[in-house]
């Protein structure tokens, strides 16, 4: 029976802790963004209909915060494994095939997210000099949440692929006993792991 080394075990625990911390920061950013968007929208409605005035800059700020909310939220959801999937086929196959599916899907997510990061960074030269109309922010600031979210998904996919591979190599080890779906990096809101 093969056993996992203490270095490998501690590396997985550290990686999971770092990803969990990133996920909590992402969730906090999502919640704060949503609250600020709601407040700005409420103030904007009050000013428009009550005083026929407007906060012109609120639309640009809300749009930026919406992008933070969407892309960091996607990264946090990926860490929670809370996305929609069809597990019927996955659960019907043996554990070894489940591990293979998990590794392959994680690799596919890694490739896709890496392409998004690279393409997002390629936009830097053209977007950094283009400014928004009111606040004159570089347009690239609106691409940063996409790049961060994709990079975070890349790191999480790397962790999940390594976890599934270790689960195949060390099926008897208690640390890798659960299936990949039950081994989330970030617990769902209200859950503890």
Can you tag this structure with a few keywords?
mainly alpha, 6 helices, elongated, 0% strand
Provide an overview of this structure.
By secondary structure, this protein is mainly α. The protein has one domain. It contains 6 helices and no strands. It has helices at 6-51, 58-80, 88-92, 95-122, 124-127, 144-169. The protein is elongated, with a radius of gyration of 21 Å. The two termini are 28 Å apart. 23% of the residues are buried. The mean pLDDT is 86.
* Large-scale geometry: elongated
Beta content comes to under 5%
Oligomerization state of this entry?
Answer: single chain
Class from helix and strand fractions: mainly alpha
**Mean of residue pLDDT values:** 86
Largest sheet: none
Number of domains: 1
Helix and strand topology:
Blueprint lengths: L5 H46 L6 H23 L7 H5 L2 H28 L1 H4 L16 H26 L24
Please outline what is shown here.
By secondary structure, the protein is mostly helical. Helices cover 68% and strands 0% of the residues.
């Amino acid at each position: 029976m093969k056993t996992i080394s203490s270095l490998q075990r501690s590396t997985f625990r550290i990686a999971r802790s770092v990803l969990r911390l990133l996920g909590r920061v992402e969730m906090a950013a999502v919640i704060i963004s949503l609250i600020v968007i709601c407040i700005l929208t409420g103030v904007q409605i009050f000013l428009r209909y009550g005083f026929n005035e407007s906060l012109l800059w609120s639309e640009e700020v809300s749009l930026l915060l919406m992008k933070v909310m969407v892309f960091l939220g996607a990264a946090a959801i990926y860490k929670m494994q809370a996305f929609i999937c069809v597990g019927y086929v996955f659960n019907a196959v043996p554990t070894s095939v489940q591990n293979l599916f998990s590794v392959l899907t994680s690799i596919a997510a890694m490739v896709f997210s890496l392409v998004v990061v690279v393409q997002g960074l390629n936009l830097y030269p053209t977007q950094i000099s283009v400014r928004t109309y009111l606040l004159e922010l570089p347009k690239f600031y609106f691409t940063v949440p996409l790049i961060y979210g994709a990079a975070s998904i890349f790191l999480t996919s790397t962790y999940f692929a390594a976890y599934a591979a270790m689960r195949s190599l060390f099926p008897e080890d208690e640390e890798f006993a659960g299936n990949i779906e039950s081994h989330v990096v970030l617990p769902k809101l209200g859950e503890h792991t």
